[in-house]
Amino acid sequence: MLFGRIFLPGLVLCALAAALSGCATIPAGGGLPVYTIGGTAYYPLAGLCDQRGVEMKYDSLLRTVRLSKDSHQVILRAGDILVLVDGNVMRLSSPVDIYRGVLAVPKEFKDQVFDLLFSFSVPPVSRTRRDRIKLRKVIIDPGHGGNDPGAIGKYGLKEKDVNLDIAKRLSRLLRAEGVQVVLTRSTDKFIPLPMRAELANRSGADLFISLHANAARSRSLNGFEVYYVAPSVSDSRRAYLTARSTPLNLKNASFSGEPLELKAIIWDMIYTNSRAESIELSRSLCGSIRDNVGMNILGAKSARFQVLKGITMPGVLVEAGFVSNLKEEKLLKTGSYREKLAAGILEGIREYSQEMSPIDFSR
Question: Using CA atoms, how far apart are residues 269 and 189, in angstroms rounded to an integer?
Answer without folding.
Answer: 35
